[in-house]
Amino acid sequence: MKDILIIGGSYFAGRVLLEKLIQEKDYNIFIYNRGNIRLNWKEVTEFVGDRDNEERMKQVIPDKEWDAVIDFCAYTPDHIEKAVRSVPGKLNHYIFISTTTVYQDILDLPIKENAPKLTDIQPELGPYADYGFNKWRSECKLQEECKKRGIRFTSLRPAIIYGRYNYAPRESYFFDLLRDNKPVIIPENKLPLFSFVWVVDVARIIIKCIGNDKVFDQAFNISADDLVSYRRLTEVLGEISGKKPDIQLMSIDEINEKRISLPFPLDSHLVYSGALIKRVLDFEYTPFLEGMRGTYKYYRMVQKKMKEKQGE
To bridge 146 with a disulfide, which of 13, 103, 153, 223 should be the other Cys (CB 3.0-4.6 Å)? Predict the structure, then answer.
């Protein structure tokens, strides 16, 4: 049995990973987070604490030889440094969940792992101005600290993640419009294009990386093969729901004037290559249509349960 420590892990991708690890039956699973969402699963040992509290980490996390530490919620170099320094025991492999937003906006698409990285914050992103830059700085800190301590590391950079438990209003934004029979407003331009990855594929890739020397001391994009535009997204909505969405095309200026908050950029690509990890792990991504079908099925199940609860 492999001992796995997950930092974060109760939300979205971390939660799906836990479900997959439990199914594998080869892992002793421990998680450390602030306990805002308690799982209370018999297969998972939960430790509650703030990752900034080094003494708490040393106090509650057991001293083990960790086959892998999987970090979902490091957002600054300081988070990485404290975790590497404070997790008791021997760390054999540190897997950091980073992001494709570490890259500069370039024209050479799809963006590969060796593309130029951010060199400063992005003020145009408002409250998320420092997100991508700090994730990149965190990757650099991970490499520095792990090399210093003889720990193998892997940075994984997912593109736009969708799927069950998603708390971000991405696919659910469109599902809600379908549910309420409201028009789906999209930009009249046929571009841009986006790269997505199903949350289940993210979990499957993480598991394949654990203790795998093929991924040691490297960084990888996680990005499915499909390139999806707003128009393709609406086609998929129709296929998975059996409904014909009421599509309304608007200019970007009109969308901005009306303050319609679409979940993806209106005039710029987010296109990344996930080919490297696919080749290294001999992995096949789930097609967008199939992943969205599963996601919509889960959404419908949740909606049904909510209606039943309201009717009690």
Answer: 153
